[in-house]
Amino acid sequence: MAQDFERDLLRDGLAPEKVQSQINRSKERITCAPVVILLCLEMSEMDSYPDEKRGQAERMMAIQSVAGAGLQVLLAAHAEGLGGVWVCSPLFAQDTIQRTLDLPEGWEPQAMFFIGYADGMPKNKEMKDLQSVVKIL
Q: CA-CA distances (angstroms) from residue 70 to 13, 21, 26, 113?
């Protein structure tokens, strides 16, 4: 994954020292986490349709289901007093992950979770006000 990440960051024009810093941070997050969970999408039991529009909608439903399952993982970890971080880096290195972990054919890495006891409370993130993101009909 580090090689894929490095290639992409260099392609983006990042300075080599910044690239190395981001790769080191990413490696540390993975190797220091007590538990790493990889969520994958698998389409074999989804419905198939003859037209592209419904086929894309079915794939989107499957992606939403994976995201919903991921949320449940994080909520379950929190309920047990654990912290969790959700990263989507597997989307950028699917082939590498599939090959390295020898995943079954059709498993598409979507997200990775780092689970463990938090070192401290995260900083509060400034949120948008509700009126700017919700429309009540």
A: 32, 28, 20, 8
